[in-house]
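Sample 3 of the quickstart, ligand 4'-deoxy-4'-aminopyridoxal-5'-phosphate:
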Amino acid sequence: MLSAATSTPSAFAPSANVARLQESATLAVAARARELRAEGRPVIDLAAGEPDFDTPPFIRAAAAAAVEQGATRYTATEGIPALRRAIADEANRRSRATAIAPEEVLVSTGSKQALFNACFALFGPGDEVLVPVPGWVSYFEMIMLARADAVSVMGDPSHGLKVTADDLARRATPRTRGVILNSPTNPTGAVYSADELRAILELADARGWWVIADEIYRRVAYPSPAPSVLDVLESRERLVLVDGVAKAFAMTGWRLGWSVAPRAVTATMAALQSHVTSNAAAVSQHAALAALTRPEESDAAVGAMVSAFAERRDVAVRLLDQGGVRYVRPDGAFYLYLDVAHAAPGAEDAGAVIARRLLDEHLVAVVPGSAFGTPQWIRVSYAASLDQVRAGVERIIATVA
Ligand code: PMP
Ligand code: GLU
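Result:
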C-alpha cells in the first residue's frame, strides 16, 4: 500500500478554475488593519468598506425574536415568501417598468452572492462583459470564474471617472454580452445621474446586452438616494438588479442580499444557489424583513447614518481641498478616491507604494487603486468616526500633497 506521503507526491496545485484567482484586495487590507490593531498598534482604518455603525436596535430585536420563534431551520432556497414580497413591494414603489413579482426575487448570502449568481448564470466562455473602471474588485474575478472575459472601460477623470454610453460603445465587440453598472460607485463615490443611466441603458437595450446593476449603495447618497435603473428603465427583460441590506442598514455581517431578474434567470440562479449555499441564513432574512417593512424606523436609522457619512465627507473634502489633493467628487457611498501619481513619481503602482507608506509609517490603512483597475490612485473609506477620518486624512495629505 502506498503511504500518504508517496500517494501525494506534489504540492497542491490550484485547479484551472481558480489558477488566476486573487484574494479580495479590499478584504485583505481590512484584515491587515484589524491584525495590526489586535497587536495594539493604533491603526486608523480607512480601508474597510463597511459602515462603522451597529445594526439598528429594532432590526436586532426582530432577529432575536425570530430566532425565539423558530427561525433556525432551512428556508426555501429563494428566501422566505414574506421577504421576497417585501423586496418586490419596495422595488415596485420606485419602478417605471413592469410590476416585479416575488417570484423574480432571489434572496442570497450577501449581494456578493447575488452578483456571482448573475455572472455565472449569464456569461460563459467566449463572452465579454464591460466593466467600468475603476470598479469594485470582485466583478473582475467573478467574470473570470464564469470563464468569460471582463473588458475594462476606463472612466473619464474629468467626469468623476464615470463611463458614458460612448465609452462603452467604443469597447464593445460582437462578443459583448453584458455590462456591470454600479452607482454610487465603489471605489469613487461617484453617482450616475438618471440621464447618464438612461443613455447607457438605451445602448445596452439596442445591443441586446444584459445589465447587472449593483445598487448596494443606492441609499447611501447625498443629499438623497441615488437614481436607480428602476427610475428610468421601461423594460426589465435583460436586467439583473442587485441590492441588499449590508451598507444602508449597517448589516454587513448578516450576509443578506438579493437579485431581481426575469423569472427564467431567477430560476437558474436559484438552482445554482441550491447547490452552493442553499438559502441565506434564516435569522438574517427575518432581520432584513424588519428593515424593509418598518419604514418609519428604517428611514430614521438610515437617515441618521447617511447624515453622519455626509458630515464626514464634508470634513474630509474640505481638508483635501485645502491640501490641494486631487480626488473624485463623492456624492454617495463612503469612499474618496485620491490621485497619488505625483507622490510616487515613476512608480508603476503609485497607489500601492503610497498605501504601504501610509500603513507602515503613518498607521493609516487605505486600499491601493490597483484593486479597482487604476494603480495611480488610493481609496479612502470614511466609514470611521469623525475624529479618525480627520486624523487619517490629515496624515494622508501630509504624505501625498
Ligand atoms: N457591491 C459592491 C460595490 C460592494 O462594495 C460590496 C461590498 N462588499 C458588495 C457588492 C457586496 O456586499 P454584500 O455582499 O455585503 O451585500
Ligand atoms: N465592498 C467592501 C469594500 O469594497 C467590503 C469588502 C469586499 O467585500 O470587497 O471594501
